[in-house]
Amino acid sequence: MVATLAFLQIPSPPPSKSSSVSQNSDLLVVPSTTKSAVSLSNFNNKSWLSVSPLHVHVGPAATLPFFLNPNDVALAAGGEFGILEGRSLALIHPLVMGGLFVYTVYAGYLGWQWRRVRTLQNEINELKKQQDSSVVAVAGDASAAAAAQPSSPLQLKIQQLSQERKELIKGNYKEKHFNAGSILLAFGVFESIGGGVNTYLRTGKLFPGPHLYAGAAITVLWAAAAALVPPMQKGNETARNLHIALNVLNVLLFIWQIPTGWDIVLKVFEFTKWP
């Protein structure tokens, strides 16, 4: 009783002469959502407290133990989420990431082909400069002499590179690379986070280690490489080289992460059930 009154911040009554309360006592505490007043009267009577319905305000101090309850910290891994904790959902992450690894290599190929379009034009321009500097004016009918002579190796090289560049332009590699990078960024970030969420659903915790750290680094590299696109579009060669370097590092981390990912897949088969 004293503890209840202390919690409700109601003054304690004076000591009663009798250690027991009669059955006719109207002592009643009823919690309610309506505001009420508490009247303290007739302390000398056995029915000394008359309480109308109370409005009890539970403060942070009262609710804090609920949030700190160790049994409620990890609600996962106990079957509460049903199929979300099963093997089917757990296997989505390795399957998607395996596909994204192949797609990363493909996006790199598209980017390299688009870069080849630009570098080929630079090579052609340099060869044309060399050709112009090697032309010597001769007396007489220069055009007839030129027609009688076969094309020079320099001229043949220019024609070959020009034809290769035309074929690459037909491939529309610039747009394909941009679209592939956008898809890779969206699905990669989504599934990287989704993999961690799925692990928590199944086990109630995460497991810091090489696979988790490498996955986080890959996600960051995806975002950093995408952030370099605006200066790349303006012709910043430093941004282009850094973009390539970040993606090469990304692929290497992906390859290094495969063995640890395979170990996790084996544990999924060991500790989970269908579906």
UniProtKB/TrEMBL annotation:
Keywords: Membrane, Transmembrane, Transmembrane helix. Pfam families: DUF4079. One of its GO terms (cellular component) is chloroplast thylakoid. It comes from the Eukaryota. The chain crosses the membrane at residues 91-112, 178-200, 212-229, 241-259. The keyword Transmembrane applies. This is DUF4079 domain-containing protein. It comes from Deinandra increscens subsp. villosa.
